[in-house]
Amino acid sequence: MNIFRFVPGYESHVYEAGKEPLLLLLVSFLIAFSLTRLYTRLARYRGWGSGNVGGVHLHHIVPGIVLVLVGGVLLAATSNSQSISRDLIAIMFGVGAALILDEFALVLHFEDVYWTERGRLSIEASIVGVLFAAVLLVASSPFGSPGDSTDERLVAVFTYLLFNVALAVVTLLKGKFMTGVIAMFMAPVALIGAVRMAKPYSPWARWFYDPARTRSPARRVKRERKLARATRRFEGGRLGRFERRLVDAIGGRFDAKAPGEWLTPTDRS
Asked: pLDDT per residue over 179-217, tens digit each?
């Protein structure tokens, strides 16, 4: 499409580099996610009814799955990497991904937790998706241009990537999703994220901060102190308050009771 050809440097750095489909995917994701959240917040505030098909509440993750599946099949059938159809498929995939990640928490918990505290995970997953696509968009190939890489260079790059991915996995296990995605491409961020304290509800905290998982009295006391520090830092500290305000600003207040159509029939009565 070369849709943003009027932007300086777009044609050489994005279009000719073959990154326009990824850019269109990212833009369509942001637009679809923003419009979806805007509607759900208005529906919650005004008590609008939800979409129903044959008396069954139709979550927007359903059309999202359809768009992603259809887009994936069409992409596999598209041979020309510079065709307009490939750009349209990228837009379709971005919209579908936004609808899916907006209800990611519902799929994970297998219940309607959209406006509960656990629903914050949908916002975090969406932010991770945006960061991942953005990093891929601006990142260059670590192997350099084809044909100019030596065996030593390949070994060095592979070792670096393996170490970086290991640190990023530790960061993700510590519950730092956004930091973990950035850490996959930036070694300093990976090192800082892996070394610093884990979030109190993360898998890492359950494995290494839970006092009930050890029989040693000394280790139990040490773990209790770690858990208390993690709770203060991420729930009562500035970092925790900042994350909560950011998620609330993007997705709405998750600790307020939702009126009208978002309540169950039992709650309404």
From this structure: 877 777 778 888 888 898 888 878 888 889 988 888 888
Pairwise CA distance, residues 128 & 89, whole Å:
21
- Rounded to whole angstroms, how far apart are CA atoms 49 and 115? 15
Crossing angle for the helix pair 151-173 and 187-195, to the nearest 10 degrees: 30
- For 26-100, strand residue ranges (E) read 52-53, 56-57
User: What are the structure tokens assigned to 117, written together?
Assistant: 């505290």
CB 114 within 8 A of CB 105: yes
What's at 146, amino acid-wise? P
Non-local (6+) Cβ contacts of 92 within 8 A are 28, 67, 70, 71, 74
Choose among 53, 58, 62, 60: nearest CA to 33: 60
**Is 74 in contact with 98 (CB distance < 8 Å)?**
no
Q: Residues 37-92: pLDDT tens digits?
A: 999 888 888 877 777 777 777 889 999 999 999 998 988 887 665 577 888 999 99
**What 8-state DSSP symbol labels residue 236?**
I
73 exposure class (CB count in 10 Å sphere: 0-12, 13-18, 19+): exposed
> Which residues sit opposite 53 in a β-bridge?
56
128, 178 Cβ separation under 8 angstroms = yes
Nearest 10 degrees: Cα torsion 37, 42, 44, 48: -120
pTM metric for this prediction: 0.70
Q: Residues with Cβ < 8 Å from 165, sequence gap 6 or more?
A: 184
